Amino acid sequence: QVLLVESGGGLVQAGGSLRLSCAASGRTFSTNAMGWFRQTPGKEREFVAAIGRIGGSTYYSDSVKGRFTISRDNAKNTVYLQMNSLKPEDTAVYYCAASRDLVLVMAGAGSWGRGTQVTVSS
C-alpha cells in the first residue's frame, strides 16, 4: 500500500480557486493510477477526478468538468487537483486515492488519505 497525505484545503469565497496536493510515499507512485473523491456529512463518498499512471488519461465527474483539473508529477510523488470557479456545493472533505489502475481507483478501491477540508462560502 501507498501512504497518502493531502494538503491545500481551506476556506475560499465562491468563484475562487484552490489547489489540493496529495503526497505519496514509496517507490510505487508511478505505478498507481490516482484519484480524488469528496464527501459531505451524511452522504456517500463521491468520485471527483482520476488520472492514469503517466497522466495521459484523465476523467472527471460531470459536476466538476471544466472547472477542476487533475495532474501528477511522478518525480515528486504528488498528484494535484486544481479547483477553479468554486461553488458552495463543492464544500466537502476531499480525499486522495491510489490503486493499480483507473477502473479500480474510480471505483474507490485501494489506498486512501485522511482528507483535507474545503469550504466555499457564498
Give a nutshell description of this structure.
Helix content is 4%, strand content 48%.
Radius of gyration: 13 Å
Count the E strands.
11
Structural class: mainly beta
**What is the oligomer described by this structure?**
single chain
Which segments are poorly predicted (pLDDT under 50) over 5 or more consecutive residues?
A: none
Average pLDDT number: 95
Number of helices: 1
Q: Whole-Å distance between the termini?
A: 39 Å
In one word, what is the shape?
A: globular
What portion of residues is helical? under 10%
From N to C, what is the helix and strand string?
EEEEEEEEEHEE
Question: Largest beta sheet, briefly?
Answer: 7 strands, mixed
Strand content: over 45%
Please describe the topology of this protein:
Layout: E1 4-7, E2 10-13, E3 18-24, E4 33-39, E5 46-51, E6 58-60, E7 68-73, E8 78-83, E9 92-99, H1 102-106, E10 111-112, E11 116-121
Parallel strand pairs: 2-11
Antiparallel strand pairs: 1-3, 3-8, 4-5, 4-9, 5-6, 7-8, 9-10, 9-11
Please explain how this structure is put together:
There is one protein chain. The protein is mainly beta and 122 residues long. Helices cover 4% and strands 48% of the residues. It has one helix spanning 102-106, and strands at residues 4-7, 10-13, 18-24, 33-39, 46-51, 58-60, 68-73, 78-83, 92-99, 111-112, 116-121. The strands form 2 sheets. Strands 2, 4, 5, 6, 9, 10 and 11 form a 7-stranded mixed beta sheet that branches. A 4-stranded antiparallel beta sheet has the order 1-3-8-7, with no helix packed on it. Strand 7 and strand 8 form a beta hairpin.
